Each structure stands twice: as structure tokens, then as C-alpha cells.
Amino acid sequence: MTISTDLITGILGFVFTLLVLSYLVEDNPLFRVAVHIFVGLSAGYVAVVVWQQVIISKLLVPMLMGDWLQRAFLLIPLLMSILLLGKMSPRYQAFGRPVVAFLVGAGAAVAIGGALLGTLLPQIQASIALFDFSATNARPLTETLTEAIFILLGTVSTLAYFQFTVRGKSGKRNALLTIVGQVFIAITFGVLFAGALTAALTALIDRVAFLVQFFDTIFFSL
Amino acid sequence: MADVKCSMCSASNPAEAEVCQQCGARLKPLTAPLDSIHPGETPTKISTSDLENTLPSWLRDVRQAAEESPAALPAATPEFLAAPVAPTPNTPLDFLSGLSAAKDDSDEPVPDWLAGLRDSLPTEEVSQSQNPVQDLLTSLTPPAPIEPQPVEPPAEEEPTWDFHDSATAETPDWLAALKAQENTPAAPKIEEKAEMSATSGDFPDWLSQLSSQTSPAATLPESAPNTSSSATGDLPDWITSLRDDSAAPVAQPASAEATAPQGDLPDWMASLRDDSAAPVAQPAPAKVTAPQGDLPDWMASLRDDSAAPVEQPAPAEATAPQGDLPDWLANISPNVEQSPSVEKPAKAFDTGAFAESALPGEAEPNWLSGITSSAPQPAAPEAEPASALPGWLDAFFVPGAEKPSEAVNQAAVEMPPVAETLPAETSAAPTGAASDAIFSMDMPDWLAGFTPSDLDMPAPKAEMASTASTETPEITPVNLPSWVQAMRPMEAVIADAEDVENEQMVEKSGPLAGLRAVLPMIVGGMTMRKPKTYSIKLNMDDAQQAQVALLEKLLATETKAQDLPAREKNRAERPLRWVIALILLLVTVIPLLMGSRWLDVPQLAGADLQAFTETLGKIEPNAPVLVVFDYQPALAGELEPIAASAVRELMLKQARLVFVSTTPTGALMSERLMARLDPQQTYTSSAQLGYLPGGAAGIQVFASAPTRIERDGLNGAVLESPTLAGVTTLNDFAAALILTDSPDEGRLWVEQAAPELRGKPLLMVLSAQAEPLLRPYFDSGQVQGLMVGLNSGAVFEQQVSPDGPVRQVWDAFGLGLIAMEALIFIGGIWGLVSAWLSARAAQKQEEA
């Protein structure tokens, strides 16, 4: 009988699934071993992927096989990568600061531009559009209006809650608004919790289904 | 301003001088109370009425007698008491000046010993009993000899002070018979008694009364100063120190206290009498012969104490008529006979006071002479005591002993009263102001230096050494009353302190280095300055102090570790967790094992799923579709079934699938999905672009030029595959399908890639946990369709391919959701009930 890869991966998956589920009893070494193994595997896998798909594929090979212009452009990221290695040593970490500054600056610029143009303005426009009754909308007006009022109330009350609660300037006039904001925030958290719980339940079902399938394969299909 | 005379050398010094220019002695006392009175100044009138109670009764009697009969005051009061009423520099003994103002204070409480003294000896009795005693004593008192200085013969000027004569006239017969025996051994060195009598301050008032009644107006001879000065040398040191240093009155009533009536004596004075037994007992044969019945008890005790020294053979006494003699004389005789070995009486007591108090012409009683004569006297001419000494007293003397000469009697006649001698003594004695200063210390002078040790007469030390050591016991410490201790002279204390201080000085430099107390320290020579005090308090205003306090508070809070509240362990936590886990496992395992289809899959799709289905359906066959795998392997169980349905639908359309991922595990997830959908790997219209690094920037670059990165990389050959044919920008894709479980990843794709799609649909397959944050993008129209979780996946799968992978786990998923909702509901109810019970219990406790 030849041992197939699926059998090995199935056994490993079965074992590691039990190790993780052992956390139901309490925090135990088996669970820790499984967690450590998963973290190690993930880090190793990420390192291999980055090395293979980023450093070699997008830096070294073009540097060796590319033309002079391509190589010249690749010198900049290469130099910055070397300088960034200086962050590992306290003595030479100053060399990596410009690189980090460049990365943070570029990332912030991209993120802010994307948030402004891709999230803030479109969301404001969408919230305002809910009150555009002249616009052709397949949904009933009452439904749209109700949704618009809820969105508006939720947005204003949530902002009011953070504005007047954090700074401690909440007065009697803003008390009701902040309470409404708290309700909306609580509903939001409840939704997020329900989504996370549903996702976890789905993952549990996937693992249980794997175990059932594994047992079915091992004991009933042989 | 009057000059100040030095108390040590009598040299005149300026009034402002503090140290004698001649001898260097300090003129002004250092003590604070004495600084307020300077020599020569008129003393401040001080009401000493409070001291009235502290005075012995004999002084009170003097006061009363003076008040009742002012005319008789000179007779009832010694001159040293009567004269210095007006405080003048030359009139000492002003210490009684305040008594006149205190006559009304006689009712105030007095010490017990004074009260007893007054009770035991009423004034009337004393005055009445003194007359016969006086008669007796005057007849017995031998004339006190005076120093050999030339003495003016003032006998004629003293008409009534011929004590000897008057006494002789009143002498009873038995005494007269005793006088006939003048040839018998008399008291030795009576002249010494006469010299000692100059200190009439020692004379008690009752004796003064006796003498003054006989001669109220005494005129003192000018030779008194010399006599007084000679007697001063016989005074004890403490008396001398009082007179020299601190204006103590010259009149030292030491002998007076010593001869005070027994009943009036306090204990300490009685002890003094005991201590001075030896000096008292040495001479005084006349005292021994005092009538027993007339003498007070204390005199009797003195007689008893002096029995040993008086052990003079007294043949005359033996021959004295027994019937005339008092009993005490009869008792003395055997004592005298028992100790005939003593050849001569010792000079044990200073009798000068008595002799001097005796008026001229009056003979001092021998018994008083015996009491007071002990001080070493300068060589005086031998007196002839035969005429003054009663004959019966001569019987007490040893035949071979020295008899008092006649000169003694003569000197006694010429002896000036004490009061007259006092002004002359001012050169060596303190002035009236000085005495007032002493009095201002609330201390009677006669009590000032009154200590048992002081009463130990120092004059005849050489002679007393043998007898005192053998006959008298050790001087027992006397417990003085506190008020007497408080009235001790300050000089004694200060002197001791200075002595100790001088003894502690050790020379540290020079040739005297290492020697102790070589050079006396000049007291007051160094200016004692109080060291300057420096304040350690910082000068800060309130604002600065508040800032400092705030800073200290911050530092304290930074270093102080906050105690985390201990997590209260619930015993039911672990079993409850097991129960929940067991329930969830059961509700998920049982449907999977059984392969049940108990729960129907929902048929009605939501708007998001409906839009997703429509959009996906609009993708043309063989169109390039960008599929982004941005979910973690942990949530592959959720996303993979629903993503599989959508990818399978694309595969059915032969869409060219380009896989890309912004997570390192994305490529793995794509291969896993493709392996699940196409185990045989027959689908060739797919391209794996792999991992897209750089986050938002990478997405933005990829969105702007999807193939540029791949062209520069190792996978540049992929661009030549038919899957990416015609794809240069992101808009070249027919649609972009985002498979993600992270709202952030989905948001980045929406923000960075949606604008680059330029109208091409952006579809998302989301995990249930990412839906709340990414749904607004669908509502805003930035995302054209959503498929969220197993619910939407089951609906979509039901539409495209029934009994797919989602349907296989749908019962487990449905039952699991029901179980979780039930647990949440039960837990919520349990929490509410628990809170209500806790509140009720708390309320009951508050009510109780």
C-alpha cells in the first residue's frame, strides 16, 4: 500500500485540528505546539514567497538580465533595500530612516488619496443621493427615505458621540444625540460580532467536515 | 555716680566697672536677677509680704511687738532689725523692710514647721519666760572679751547696758552662791566669745529681747567695727560668702537658729543642732548650769548633746545648794562628774554673736558663750572672768583650765551693739541695696545659705577634727523643704558651674598645652552670639508650588505600578465552555455525519447577491477576469465554497482567469481553489501573477499598469500567455473579482483599483466578518455585486449548481447558527436574571 500525499496531509490536518481544538479544555502545550508550528510554517512560507516572487523575480533577475535602463532603475530599490537593512543594527539604523520615510510617505500619500477619492467622497455622495427623490430608483420611496434617515441619524449621532464624549463636552442637549450614537455603535459592533461569529462557525464547520471526511476516507473507503 | 567698692579688696571702682581694677574680682554679678540692681542704687520697693509666712515666729514676734509698742521696739528688736528700715547704702539688713507691709498677711497659710513653731511657743510665753531667764543669763554671762585693739571706754555712756550689774542684782541666791566660786575653773577663752559676739546677727530675737529690755537704748562704741570684723573671720564660709558676694546682711542668725527653742525648731534646724553638737557642747559650762525649768527643751537637748564636752569637773556645782538649783542643773552635775578627764572645754561654737549682742555692762550667759564660742579667735588679752562668771560655773571648769579673765568682762562691757558695728562693715559687707537684691530673690538671708554643711563651723576645724570624728556621727543629708532649696543663693550654684567649667578647660596650644584648668576662663570675655539661621525654605510662589506638586504627582504615578484588578474566576466557566463546545460540535458534526438536508436553502437573494449574479452573468465568455485571492487560509473554509461557485461559473464561461494576491498566501489559496475545481488541471485559461507586494501602493501600481510589473519580473513570460492577451491596463479586464476576508484589503482594492476599472464591474466575495464594513461600497455603487458568506453562497450555489459544497455543510451551518443564537439568548437571560438577583440581594442587604 502506497501512502499518498493526501493521506499524509489528511493525517497531519487531523492531528493539528485536534491539537487546536484541545484549547476547549484549557491552554495546553499541545495547542501551543500547533500554534507555533503554524506560525513557523506561515513565516517560512511568506519568506519563500517573498524571496521567490519579489527579490529574485522582480529585483535580481531584472538586474542581471535586464537592459542598462532597467538596471539603472532597479538600482534605486536595491540601494534603498540595502539601506533598509541598516535598521537591524542600532549603529547603522540611521541609514534606513530615509528609506522608511520614503515608504511611509509614499504609502500615506497613496492611502490618503485612495481614502479621499475612493471612500470619503463616494460615501458622502452616496449618503446625499439617498435624499434625491427625483433620481430614478427602483426601490420604494419610503424604503429609500427610511434608509436615508437612518444613515443620516447614524452618521450624525455617531460623530456626535465621539465628538462630545471623548472631549467631555457633552451637555444635556447633546445627551440624547450621543445616546443614539451609542445605539448605532452598539448595533455596528453587534453586526461585526455576528459576522465574526458566523465566519468562525463556518471555519469550525469546515474543520469538522474535514474530520468527517477524513474518518470517512480512512475507515469507510478503505 | 557713687563708686563701687570691691567686695574682695574694698577698693573703689567706678560705678560702670564690672571688674575690680585692683584685684580683678567681678563687681557686678552675672546672674540675671542681680543685674537689675546695681550697687549704690536705691532698691526698688518690693513687697515682701509673701515672705511673712516664711519667717520664723520670733521675727513675727518682733514685728508684733514693734507694732504694739513702737516705743519698745528698740528694746524688743535687735538693732540690726530695727535700724535699717530706710534702705540707705550704709544701712544694711533691709531684708526685713517688707515685713511692715505684711502684717495683715499673718493669716496666710504658713509651712507646717512654722505653724508648729508658733503654736508651741506663744509670744506671751516667750516674753514671760524670758525675764527670769534673762535674769539668770545676765548673771551668768561672762563679759565677752574684745580684740586687743584700743577700745574707747564707753562704759559710762551706756547707762542701762550694764548687764552684768543688773544681772547681778537680780541673780537668785543660788546663783549668787555660785558666783562665790569664781575661783573655780571658768570657761576657757571667754574673750573669744566676746569677739564672736560681734556678729549679733546670730543673736536670736528672744535673746535680743532679753537684752533690749534691760537696755533699750544702746549706744555703740566706735570700736565696734574692729570687733565685728574680727568676728567676721569666724563666721562660716557660707555666711561670709553671703556678706561678701551678694549683699547678704551681716547679721547671721546662725547661732540664733541654733539656739532657737526646741519646739520652734523645724526638723532641719534640729538636725543642725545635732550636727553642731560638738561645737555646742565644748564650752559653755554656764549654759549647762541654766535652770532646767526655765530653759526650753531645746536648750535641754543642747545640754544633753554637750554632755561630753562639758565633762568638766564641777566641784563648785557639787557644793551648790541643791534646792536653788534647777533640776537641769542637778542633772548636769552627774554628767560632769562622769567625765572628769577633759581638761578644758573645746572651742566649738562661735559665741561672738551673743557676746556682741550683749549690752555693755551685761555679761553674756556662759551657756551662750559655750554655744557660740568655737571659732579661732585672735590672740586676745586674757580676760578676768572671775568677776563676771558665776562661781557656780567655775565649778565646771577643770582646775587647770584657763579661766576667763577680767578683761573679758571689761571687753564685754565695752562691746558695742551689733547695729552700730554694721555701718562700719559695709566696706566688706553688702549694702542695703545689695541685701534687697538678695531679698528680691524671695529668700530670707538667714535661710539663704542655710545648709547643714554650712553649719558645720569651719573655724575650729583643727581642734574639732578629733572630737567631731569620734563623737559626732556623719552629717546626714537633710531634706530641705523645696521652698528652702529654691531660696538657695545663686552664687553657690554659679560658682560651682564656673568651677566645673574651668576644670573642663584644657589648653590646646602653647607651652600650657595639655594642662587642665591652668588659665581661668574669663566668663563673659567672649561674646556669645547666636548663630545666624538660614532658612531652608525655598522662595516659591503658589504657582510654582503647584507646578512642583504636579510634577511630583506625575513622577509618583509614573513609577507606581497600577494594580490590575484580579480577574474573578468563575467555577462554572470551564464546564460552561465545555458545554458550549459540546453543543456546537454536536450540532455541526451530526448533520455532517448524517449528510442531512434538514434545512432548506434560502431561495431569495438579496440585492447585493442579485447584483453579483447579474454582473457575473454579464461577463462575456473568454473575457479576461481578474481574480484576487486576498483571504487567509484560516477562513478558507468560509470563502472557498462560495468562491468556488463563482469561479466555477466563470470557468463555465471559459473566462480567462488572472490570479493575483496582495497576501503571500493568496497564490496558495488560488492554487488550492483551482485544484478543488479542476483536480485534473484541464483548465488552461488562467494565469497566476502571484504575490503583489507594496500594499496600497502595489495595488495602485498594479491598477495603473497590471502587466508592467510582471514584465520586469521573472514572470514576464506570463504576459505572453493567451490569458493576458490584450490586457495592458486594469480596464482591459472584463471584471475584477475580489475574494477577501479582510475589510481593509477589500477597501484598498475599491479605493485604488475601482477608479482604474473605469466602469468595469468590481465584484466581491466576502467573508461574513468583512461584510459590515464593505457593504457601504456596494450601496454607494463602487462595488457592483457582493456575495457574502455561506448564506449568499448557498443561494448563489442553489441558483447555479444545486447540491454544491455549500449545501453539504448548510445544515451544520444552520444548526450551528441556531445553537449559537440560542446560547446567546440563554446567556443574555441568565445575565439579566443574575443581575436582577444581585440587585435584589443588595437591596435586601441595604434594607436590613
How would you sum up this structure, described in words?
The complex is a heterodimer of chains A (222) and B (848). By secondary structure, chain A is mainly alpha-helical. Among the domains of chain A are: 1-65; 133-222. Chain A is built from six helices and no strands. The longest helix of chain A is centred in the last third of the chain and has 49 residues, at 172-220. Chain A is extended, with a radius of gyration of 27 Å. Chain B has 848 residues and is mainly alpha-helical. Among the domains of chain B are: 45-426, no CATH class; 607-808, 3-Layer(aba) Sandwich (Rossmann fold). In chain B, strands 6-5-4-7-8-9 form a six-stranded parallel beta sheet, with helices on both faces. Chain B has a two-stranded antiparallel sheet with strand order 1-2. In chain B, helix 35 (666-677) links the parallel strand 5 (656-661) and strand 6 (686-691). In chain B, helix 36 (695-704) packs across helix 37, helix 36 (695-704) packs parallel to helix 38 and helix 38 runs parallel beside helix 39 (771-779). Chain B is elongated and about 150 Å long.
